[in-house]
Design goal:
Strand order of the largest sheet: 1-2-3
Shape: elongated
CATH class: Alpha Beta
Helix content: 25-40%
Radius of gyration: 15 Å
GO biological process, one term: sporulation resulting in formation of a cellular spore
InterPro entries: CytB_endotoxin-like_sf, Endotoxin_CytB
Distance between the termini: 29 Å
Pfam families: Bac_thur_toxin (PF01338)
Largest sheet: 3 strands, antiparallel
GO cellular component, one term: extracellular region
Number of helices: 4
Structural class: alpha+beta
Order of helices and strands: HHHEEEH
Keywords: Sporulation
Number of domains: 1
Number of strands: 3
């Protein structure tokens, strides 16, 4: 278990996703395609309504802000033992000064 906090005040969703991907690359000691990893994270947080309806993401109040939490599972084949694989379960919680749930559903790469 590890807890890391990335504070983003004025950056876009795309920049924030890149920082999360950097962090996960450090945690996962295997080679992962960073571009693909960032795309998975970006997809997770730019289609929140669908993800919430599917049970993968959930909304909550966080002080005077709101948050969405999303749990991701990554699996990578062990190149030395093809029948073996590495997994990483991660929970990503985005907290923002977004006041209503519906506004979260409109996030795009360039949202600040």
């Amino acid at each position: 278990y590890d807890y890391n906090k990335i504070i983003q005040q004025e950056n876009t969703v795309d920049v924030m996703v890149d920082k999360i991907a950097d962090l996960l690359m450090k945690v996962a000691s295997v080679i992962i395609d960073k571009v693909a990893l960032a795309e998975i994270i970006l997809n997770a947080f730019t289609s929140l309504e669908q993800k919430e309806d599917s049970g993968f993401a959930w909304y909550e109040k966080e002080g005077s802000n709101t948050a969405f939490t999303y749990r991701l599972l990554f699996a990578v084949v062990n190149k030395h033992v093809p029948d073996d694989f590495y997994t990483l379960v991660t929970t990503i919680k985005l907290v923002a000064d977004i006041k209503d749930k519906q506004s979260w559903f409109g996030l795009v790469k360039t949202t600040r």
